[in-house]
Amino acid sequence: MLRIGRSAARSVPPPRVPLSNPPILRVPYIQTSSMSTLPKPKKWEFWIDRGGTFTDVMAQRPNGSIETLKLLSENPEAYKDAAIMGIRTLMGLGKSDAIPGGKIEAVKMGTTVATNALLERKGERTLLVTNKGFRDVLRIAYQNRPDIFARHIVKPELLYSSVVEVSGRYSADGKELEKLDAKEAKRALKVAFEEGYRSVAVVLIHAYRNTKHELELKQIAKDIGFEQISISHEVSPLIKMVSRGDTTTVDAYLTPILRRYVDQVLTEIKGTRVMFMQSNGGLTEATLFQGKDSILSGPAGGIVGAACTCAAEGINNLIGFDMGGTSTDVCHLSNGEYERAFDTEVAGVRMRAPIMKIHTVAAGGGSILTFDGQRLLCGPQSAGAVPGPACYRRGGPLTVTDCNVMLGKIRADEFPKVFGPASDQPLDTDIVAKKFEEMTKNINAEASTQKSPLEVADGFLKIAVDNMATAIKDISVRRGYDVSKYALCCFGGAGAQHACLVADALGMETVFIHEYAGVLSAYGMGLADIRAMREESVERLLDIKALDEVNSMAEKLTEKCHKELESQGIAKGSAKVSISVHLRYKNTDSSLLVPYVSDQVKLTANFEEKHHQRYGFSAKGKPLVVEAVVVEAVAQSGLVEVKERKVVKNPQTPQPTKMVEAYMGGKMSKTGIFPRESLETDSEVVGPAIITEPNSTVIVEPEWKAVLSDQGSLILTRTKPKERMAAVGTDRCDPIMLEIFNNLFMSVAEQMGATLENVSHSVNIKERLDFSCALFNATGNLIANAPHVPVHLGSMSESVMSIINARDGTMAPGDVFLMNNPYNGGTHIPDVTVITPVFAAEEYKKPTGEKPLFFVASRGHHQEIGGITPGSVPPFSTNIEEEGVLIDNFHLVDRGTFREKEVIELLTSGKYPTRNVNMNLSDLRAQIAANERGIKEIHKMVHQFTLPVVNTYMKYVQDNAEEMVRKVIDALEAGTFTYEMDDGCKVKVTVSIDKKERSATIDFTGTDPQQKSNFNAPKAIAQAACLYVFRTLVDHPIPLNSGCMKPLKIILPEKSMVNPSPPAAVVAGNVEVSQTITDALYGALGVLAGCQGTMNNFTFGTSTDGYYETICGGTGAGPNFDGCDAVHSNMTNTRLTDPEILETRYPVRLEQFEIRSNSGGEGKYRGGNGIVRAIRFLKPMTASILSNHRRVPPYGLQGGGSGKVGKNTLIKANGKVEELSHRAEIEMNSGDVFVIQTPGGGGFGKKEC
Question: Which pairs from 600-606 meet CB under 8 Å and 24+ separation?
């Protein structure tokens, strides 16, 4: 029989075996000892999880017993559909026998059919219908690129194949501005239908406000004969055109695929009830199952199973841990409540629909093990189903599964013999030992270590565990939850092998493993409730009228939910109804779901309490916006009863069936093997031990014990608290610990970033993500910089060093310092840096005294900090004073006391003070909180590994980064490049390569002197650009730290535009000259054609408020790839505000937002295209543009053509057109339109005829 649990199912399956008579794994369900009480049926019930590789089938017989069966999901030689075959097999039917539906109470199923179609982009050919001017709105989306260090930028493949643009438009408040041209729409849709389209997605701007046009289009499409018509206000009736649009296209793209599968199932199963699991964790009738609700159908069953089985043991706070082969899914449940995401991204698609909140990390049983010469790497690549791990006898690479084989945790004699050509061989332990022996020799030679193959295997396992623990921190610790008080609910067959180790990495002391852990997703289908959910957008300030509107909406939505449940046989009134509202602070995007009460004071208090718990603060008195109302009706299907535990007096000590040697706790240990069925209630198995069961293997590590509860579950707990001090040598760099510390240091910076994003108030930081966080050693050298905004990378070191130089010997615990001085490591005035020294915790205070051990810093772009224009990005500033309040070495927090009065005096002083000091104060507090998070994580690290070890590995990670850059330099050729900007100034760079020293000299001699304008890049900007370029040349993931700079000698002539002297203006240096420096370096090295080379900084506002955005364009082509259309490049990666949010908050109307066709340079590889963005002003405001490449085109390389230059145009309300320069400031009147056409990227290589 197959004994590979769901871990292997979603991960690394054994070789595909034709199964004419699939093996059955029979597990009796005994009601008196089971964890749960299910209503005993008089008929059969089937609970099925159809995964990508395996299908798990559970059957509850009429007598109450349960049997399980595992089948390959795809096995056309043996059967057409695994789920149907599973039902036939368990009912004792032949392959072609009719299924007696009358004998079946219900079939409850989760499926990855739609998920796989999405991942593989094999959905239905889909047509998108949208407003004129918005054909590319979903393609451009929020303009940020997925990997800031990738030269070849690859965006997720689109779900629609063609676009129809229609006339007709609504305003942000739902008023009709232009009627729908129904005749035009009908003609276009008929043409598409004749071309073979049968599925259509209709996405119109502000359709959530007014549905008339979408409904008209739906009727037109229906009359023509379209079979699947998804309209955005029905699919996701919420604000945000991009994510609502993506959700709608997902629905149109997947529903036909899903429908065909559902019809196939219903054809085979007649006369019974068939239900499918939705992504929100509720069951629904097969005929109501939609594409948008199917994305996480299978994993949602796992969460339901985890929640219900843990609840039966009285566990309400848990972390779900589902380890597969290619990845691991984790989830967080507090107080037994499901967590749902209403705005998320799955497979590169933004979803605006309620789905279970699941975080996935690329670490699983099939993660491939490699050694890059310095570090041991685990994943993200996976061995997949073919060839699988090395032990599967198909020539596969070493994987995490092989680590467990090598260590003796997975036993060949306990594993099914289904390998080899005849599918009758055991796991191949010899090839695993041989491969680890070979790798160990290479590691010892390259890294000068003396490790054994067992130590290497154990090291790789530690790295995999660290990756999985980091994923759990993402969903818990970063959001303010203390997981040490939680239980780790482990399911999927591979998870139980690593559960104790993952728990130890997180400080958790309880692990829960249900008897059906290996098939828990299928079991969850049986325990799930039937649910109906409805949402509707509100988008108005919270007041009495808003409450009246919510009450009215909730009543209508409740009735719709009841009708849906009634259509599924649920009696009206029997369902439990809950009403919630999405609330957020005015002018922010981050909403929270709060249970609804019709009392404004109580509702506000509930929101503020939840906001404080999630983000660490609440802004009392700030207006709230009701974003949407959500109604959920739940009809119980599966029932779980928590039973009183039965204590067994003097339970017998279980005896192992045999003793084996296994590597645990850093050494070979005698380890007992215990079949799970041999354990009695309350008997203890003390680690090290291996518990075997039909669907998985449970590893009980040393200092852990396992107890079988009377509910039938294994409860693992520590026998004593874990000793946090890890013994790590410092005499040489251990390649295992190098990778672990790389991840630990980066995790500190990333957790700081997550805190800053959560706690900040401003749009720039919270939503555009214009910030960076970093960790530094005692001398100010960068150790880890989370990859947020490239222009910040590496530039903060100089700021930290300036504080050290000015404050050395005077800093005390609780001190925090503030600066934005571009001449002291800053970038430009709005980028404000908060620096906190890290002092020793109690255990190290005596030997270190009061000297800082480390530093943490956070840099954020403040929305407003003074200057001559709103938004603090003036296009015509000529000195630093005109750009805002200059701050240098300011004592922000003195020994724990926030100096608010002094900060306000500072920010409101000078000739051009800030226009919004309260917003500044809020963001400063958020930056302080982010730094505090970093300090806590550093103290944990020092406590675990000791201060000498942490300091030593700070040096080693820099050495590692240095070596990786030197390897790149070995393959580079010298070059010179001069790049002119639109105002005539030039950046010249010469790159010289010293092959012997393996170093590069980057000489900017010949660059023009500093400018009278603001096109001057401070020294820190130029250094950051150099660091960024050389980091992008490293094709492997490495941490960005000061080591990357060691092989680089940078020459920056004083008083030049790349190293100006005060009081020169610098705002364009950060946003424009930085782009020119980057492109000039790529040109000198000959590796990448010119990108759009500008950030297209666009601001508008009044004397009291302002808006700022940067706008994407085309990227340059490379030696073997095209450039990318409509994406940010080089030194920025900030997001763009959603069109509906933009129009709702500001008196403007977005009239055109599309890709600028043929603006990329010609060549063997084409440059990427820029975009066109046209904004109509509805009230008088001041607007400004600060840009480049309006005169000088982005260059092509190796015979490739230049990209088209951009254009800035003003179209007056009276029709007069005025061409603007690369920088301009205009007084906009009502009706005026500002049009920005961004440049395309250069081509690479001569175009072939």
Answer: 600/542, 600/543, 600/544, 600/547, 603/542, 603/547, 604/542
What token pair was written down for 294? Answer: 């199917």
Residue 848 clears pLDDT 60, i.e. is over it: no
SS3 of residue 632 by DSSP: strand
Amino acid sitting at position 436: F
What the block records as the tokens of 661 is 């040697």
Q: Residue 668 — φ and ψ, nearest 5°?
A: -75, 135
- Cα–Cα distances (Å) from 382 to 11, 12, 368, 805, 1186, in that order, read 9, 9, 5, 48, 45
Edge-to-edge strand order for the sheet containing 1223-1228? 1106-1109, 1097-1101, 1181-1186, 1223-1228
Percent over 90 (pLDDT), the chain? 61
Task: Label the pairing between strands 376-382 and 367-371.
Answer: antiparallel
Confidence class for position 229, pLDDT limits 50, 70, 90: very high
* First CA to last CA distance, the chain: 60
Contacts of 1023 (CB under 8 A, 6+ apart): 794, 795, 798, 1045, 1050, 1052
Least confident of 190-204, 460-474, 756-770, 1087-1101: 756-770
Kind and range of the H or E element at 59?
Answer: strand 54-60
Q: Each residue of 1053-1086: b (16+ CB within 10 Å) or e? A: beebbbbbeeebbbbbbbbbbbbbbbbbbbbbbb
Where do the H-state alpha helices sit in 236-277?
Answer: 241-268
Q: Which residue has the tokens 């623990």?
A: 469
**Residue 925 and residue 902: Cα distance in Å, rounded?**
14
Residue 596 tokens, joined: 């609804």
Specify whether the CB–CB gap between 803 and 819 falls below 8 A: yes
Give the pLDDT confidence of 873-925 residue by residue, as tens digits.
Answer: 888 999 999 999 999 999 999 999 999 999 999 999 989 999 889 889 989 99
The tokens describing 1028, both together, are 């960024």
Say if strands 986-994 and 975-980 run parallel, antiparallel, or are unpaired. Answer: antiparallel
Contact residues for 475 (Cβ-Cβ < 8 A; gap 6+): 319, 330, 331, 332, 357, 359
From CA 621, how far away is CA 457, in angstroms rounded?
A: 57
| Cα–Cα distance measured from residue 229 to residue 239, given in angstroms and rounded to the nearest whole number | 20
- The residue-averaged pLDDT of 1090-1117 equals 91
The pair phi, psi for residue 837, each rounded to 5°, is -70, 145
> Which range is least confidently modeled, 247-261, 300-314, 830-844, 1162-1176?
830-844
CA dist list (Å): 152 to 51, 380, 1122, 1162: 33, 19, 8, 17
pLDDT at position 870: 79
SS3 for 628?
A: strand
Counting other chains too, the contacts that 571-579 makes at CB distance below 8 Å and 24 or more residues apart are 574/635, 575/532, 575/633, 575/634, 575/635, 576/633, 576/634, 576/635, 576/636, 577/631, 577/632, 577/633, 577/634, 578/631, 578/632, 578/634, 579/554, 579/629, 579/630, 579/631
Q: For the chain, give the number of residues.
A: 1249
Residues 6+ apart with CB under 8 A from 656: 672, 673, 674, 689
DSSP H or E stretch at residue 561:
helix 544-566
Q: What is the DSSP letter of 1137?
A: P
**Residue 170 contacts residue 179 (beta carbons within 8 Å):** no
Q: Per DSSP, what are the bridge partners of residue 1201?
A: none
Q: Are 85 and 95 in contact (CB under 8 A)?
A: yes
Q: Is the dihedral of CA 476, 477, 482, 483 positive or negative?
A: positive
Two structure tokens written together for 428: 């191949």
What pLDDT was estimated at residue 675?
Answer: 93
CA–CA separation, 387 and 383 (whole Å): 6
Cβ count near 657 (within 10 Å)? 12
pLDDT tens-digit readout, 605-634: 999 988 877 766 677 888 999 999 999 999
Q: Which residue has the higher pLDDT, 1217 or 517?
A: 1217
